[in-house]
Amino acid sequence: MYSYQYPRAALTVDAIVFTQKNNETFVLLIQRGHEPFKGKWALPGGFVNMDETLEEACKRELLEETGLKVDALKQFKAYDAIHRDPRHRTISVVFSAEVHNKENVAGGDDASKAEWFPITALPPLAFDHAQMLSEFFSF
Predict the structure, then answer these.
(1) In a domain? residue 2
(2) Contact 58, 92 (CB under 8 A)
(3) Which of 13, 73, 80, 91 has the most Cβ atoms closer than 10 angstroms to its Cβ?
(4) Confidence (pTM)
(5) Residue 87 sits in a domain of what CATH number?
């Protein structure tokens, strides 16, 4: 196993999955089933395993938490604010994917629900996910 003298940041991924319908943009969110932010809405995502790439981790987390499988993701941006996660130092790499329809989704793994929301009517979001969406959609 690995042993280092200095503390290290945890690495996570988040997915901005969206679709357009009747000139409105919808984004896929999950409701968190565990602390921190239990009950709040968030982008699907989670921690990267040691044996997977960032994109593989993002696809896995998206499938586990929503049941949605995507073929390709595009890397958007990394978020590294010091206190963005109350548990510990966490850096998140955000990916995006546009899908053709609001596919059927359901909460799974540590997500109690998964739903599509119009970006003009988002619920309160966990972590810094409101900032992520604001920067991605430029609103």
Answers:
(1) no
(2) no
(3) 13
(4) 0.94
(5) 3.90.79.10
Q: 100, 99, 85: which is closest to 32 by C-alpha? A: 85
Calculate mean pLDDT across residues 82-99.
Answer: 95
Domain extent for 98: 10-137
Closest CA to 15 of 52, 41, 42, 45: 45
Give me the mean pLDDT over the 110-128 stretch: 95
Average pLDDT, the chain: 95
- The amino acid that residue 59 corresponds to is K
DSSP 1-16: ----SS---EEEEEEE
* 98 inside domain: yes
User: Distances from the Cα of 124 to the Cαs of 43, 47, 60, 128, in angstroms?
Assistant: 12, 22, 25, 11
The number of distinct structural domains making up the chain is 1
Residue 4 lies in a domain: no
Does a structural domain hold residue 81? yes
**How far apart (Å, rounded) are the C-alpha atoms in residues 70 and 126?**
23
Residue 42: strand pairing partners: 30
